[in-house]
Write a structure and sequence with these properties.
eight-stranded mixed β-sheet, 219 residues
Length: 219
C-alpha cells in the first residue's frame, strides 16, 4: 500500500532533519549513509530492529492520519432534533438512514453544552473487533466521543463532500455512550444520497474491515 500525504510529509521532514544533523556534524555522515542503505535494501529492517527476544513486534491496528478541531457550543445537544432522516436540498445535514440500534440507544440522549475538543482520526490497518481497537486507543476514556462531535463533522460534509470523514462508502467509526452509559460503536458512512448511522455493541462479532477510519480523543 502506498504512502498517504501525511506519511509522505513526515518522511520528508525526518529525512530533511537527518540531513541537517549531518551538516551540523552531529551525526557521522558515513554511518547515516550506511544505515539508510540498509533500510533501502531490506524491507523487513524495521521489524528486525524492533524485535524483542527474537519475536516480531506486534503490528499496530491503527495508523494515525490527522486531527480535527471541533468548536465549542453554548446550547445543549438534543439528538432527536439533529439526527433526522432528510435528504432534501435544504437539509442541514443529509441523512438517509438511522439504524434501529442507533435510534434506540441514542435518539433519546441529550448532551450538555460542549467545551470544544480535538479529535484524532486513524486508518484501521487490518480487520479487527472493537475491543482491540478500544484497547489500542488507550481504553474507553480515550476512545469515547460524543454525538455533538459526530454531528459537527457531518455538518462540515453535509452533502457528502470531501473532508475528514470518509465519503467512499467505508465506515467512520466512533465510540459513544448510549442512554444507559454503555459505550457503543457508531458507524457513520456516506450512502450516496445521505449519511447512514448504525450502532453496534462492542461485542459485535462481525468487527470492522481494514481501511475504515477510527475517531478518538487526541489527548
Amino acid at each position: 500500500m502506498g504512502a498517504n500525504t501525511a506519511q509522505k510529509a513526515r518522511l520528508l521532514d525526518l529525512t530533511t532533519g537527518m540531513l541537517e544533523l549531518t551538516r551540523d556534524e552531529k551525526r557521522d555522515i558515513e554511518q547515516v549513509c550506511s544505515m539508510l542503505q540498509i533500510i533501502k535494501d531490506d524491507p523487513d529492517f524495521a521489524k528486525r530492529l524492533l524485535a524483542k527476544n527474537g519475536e516480531p513486534v506486534t503490528e499496530l491496528l491503527l495508523e494515525p492520519v490527522g486531527t480535527i478541531a471541533v468548536s465549542a457550543t453554548a446550547e445543549r445537544f438534543v439528538a432527536k432534533d439533529k439526527f433526522m432522516i432528510d435528504t432534501g436540498r435544504k437539509a442541514l445535514v443529509k441523512i438517509s438512514y438511522l439504524g434501529d440500534n442507533f435510534t434506540e440507544w441514542f435518539l433519546g440522549k441529550t448532551e450538555g453544552p460542549f467545551a470544544g475538543s480535538t479529535l484524532r482520526y486513524s486508518n484501521l490497518r487490518k480487520d479487527s473487533l472493537d475491543v482491540p481497537i478500544v484497547s489500542e486507543l488507550g481504553g474507553e476514556e480515550k476512545a469515547e466521543t460524543t454525538l455533538a462531535e459526530i454531528y459537527t463533522l457531518m455538518e462540515l460534509q453535509r452533502d457528502g463532500r470531501v473532508g475528514v470523514l470518509l465519503n467512499n462508502g467505508y465506515a467512520n467509526i466512533f465510540y459513544v455512550r448510549g442512554g444507559v452509559l454503555v459505550l457503543r460503536a457508531v458507524s457513520v458512512l456516506w450512502g450516496g444520497d445521505g449519511w447512514n448511522l448504525i450502532a453496534y455493541p462492542l461485542g459485535n462479532p462481525r468487527g470492522w474491515d481494514a481501511g475504515r477510519q477510527v475517531f478518538s480523543r487526541n489527548s
